[in-house]
Design a protein that fits this description.
The protein is α/β, with parallel strands linked by helices. The protein has 13 helices and 15 strands. It folds into 2 domains: 276 residues, Alpha-Beta Barrel (TIM Barrel), CATH 3.20.20.20; 126 residues, 2-Layer Sandwich (Sulfite Reductase Hemoprotein, domain 1), CATH 3.30.413. The chain binds iron/sulfur cluster.
């Protein structure tokens, strides 16, 4: 992992919903002492899928996404009835809300009046300088940040020749997407100038595309040129099945290189998956401390000894609601990798012949038939969680070294050893030697 890129920092929220900071590391422009800000953890955003003017449904959706872990929720406000609805929605939610504004700058002004916590403007469709200045001044008066979100699809001049692009074109000539990157950068520079002229710096930038490679190239170039925090995303990533790969390829690559301060994974699906997968990406890269279970499971193979797919799903659902400490739980299909994973997990099960051997921090606690695996595993996880909460156990501690019952010599045929109460180590033998 590369160190996080230092940026200016923006803050959104209010005392009622709390404050979320984005980016950091550079001096705070609002602080006269000019002390460097502490970089905020990378935050996870999503966007509601329903109509904002459907007040009750919108409130339910925002609260569901917040409960799932969203740090920030964005809503679309295409019509006046949507910004009017915000006045009723905001008091019923407890997470910073961003109004996503396209085409009509009045929606931004109305959303600011309604009390949203941030505005997103698209330079591709709100271009009138006077209108942009009106929005800037409204946000400035209330200390609200603005995201400038350039989308590949909404840059209408993408085929035009621009003066600045000629210079930029030379810079990007060796890149596959040089022409598009040049337009994106030119558009941002032009738009940012309006903000700087108004002495407005509470800015976040995004430059999304549906192409993961363009996203990586665009954010890499932007990160070299501007010191504002970056909102990462692959736009129109498609259904979850392919969108996951696209998003993780682009966002994961950038985050590994220290680029990115807030993320949205976008799918054509229930936005709850965007939140869950965004958080998982950050947990996986060690950019956020995990909340709840870290579930490790094998992909299964011809050595499988129980119905592992069903077991994993059942374990995931059962633990998701009950375990709040970042406990590592391993569910493995046989003894080949079971002992190794069990050793690194707080609670683990690996399957034998229609049975499961359960370990807690390396200590064997049960050997149960298949139907009893789920209830016993859940009971052990809950008991272990209570111990952690009482300070009697520590997560990630290994008390006993697990001795693999059958390390290599008899793959898939060590049932007798699995079922015996004391597994005995077998000397490592490799066939043909
Ligand atoms: S743990 Fe066993 S069943 Fe699971 S993938 Fe590995 S060898 Fe196959």
């Amino acid at each position: 992992m590369f160190p996080r890129r230092p940026t200016k920092q923006i803050t959104l929220g209010d005392p009622r919903v709390g404050f979320v900071k984005i980016g950091g590391g550079l001096p705070d422009p609002h602080n006269r002492a000019g002390n460097p800000t502490t970089p905020a953890p990378v935050s996870v955003q999503t966007m509601t899928a329903g109509y904002t003017h459907d007040i009750d449904a919108c409130v339910r959706e925002i609260n569901k996404l917040h409960a799932a872990g969203a740090d920030i929720v964005r809503v679309a406000v295409p019509e006046k009835k949507d910004t009017e609805a915000l006045r009723h929605i905001l008091p019923q939610t407890k997470v910073p809300i961003v109004a996503d504004v396209h085409f009509h700058f009045q929606r931004a002004l109305e959303a600011v009046e309604a009390g949203v916590h941030k505005i997103r403007l698209n330079p591709g469709n709100i271009q009138d300088r006077a209108q942009v200045i009106e929005v800037i001044n409204a946000c400035k008066a209330r200390n609200l940040p603005i995201r400038i979100g350039v989308n590949e699809g909404s840059i209408i001049e993408r085929r035009d020749k621009q003066k600045r692009m000629k210079e930029l074109g030379a810079v990007f000539s060796d890149q596959k997407h040089g022409h598009l990157l040049a337009i994106m950068i030119a558009k941002l520079e032009e738009y940012l100038d309006i903000f700087y002229e108004q002495d407005f710096h509470d800015i976040c930038i995004s430059a999304k595309s549906m192409d993961a490679a363009i996203v990586v190239d665009a954010y890499t170039e932007i990160s070299k040129r501007f010191d504002h925090p970056l909102h990462l995303g692959v736009t129109h990533a498609g259904p979850k099945e392919t969108g996951t790969i696209r998003s993780v390829a682009a966002l994961g690559g950038l985050l590994i290189h220290g680029i990115g301060d807030t993320i949205r994974i976008s799918y054509a699906n229930d936005p709850i998956y965007e939140v869950q997968d965004g958080l998982e990406l950050l947990y996986s890269l060690g950019l956020r401390p995990r909340v709840g279970v870290d579930l490790i499971a094998c992909p299964t193979c011809g050595r499988i000894q129980v119905d592992l797919f069903t077991l994993i799903q059942d374990v995931r659902k059962a633990l998701a609601e009950k375990i709040t400490v970042p406990m590592k739980v391993a569910v493995m299909g046989c003894i080949v990798n079971g002992p190794g994973e069990a050793e690194g997990a707080d609670v683990a099960v690996f399957a034998g012949d229609r049975r499961g051997i359960i370990y807690v921090q390396g200590e064997k606690v049960a050997n149960v038939p298949e139907p009893e695996i789920l209830p016993r595993l859940l009971a052990e996880c809950l008991a272990f969680q209570e111990k952690v909460q009482r300070g009697e156990a520590k997560l990630g501690e290994k008390k006993v070294e697990i001795i693999p019952p059958d390390p290599l010599g008899e793959l898939g045929s060590g049932y007798a050893k699995i079922n015996s109460s004391t597994p005995t180590p077998t000397p490592l033998t490799v066939q043909g030697r």
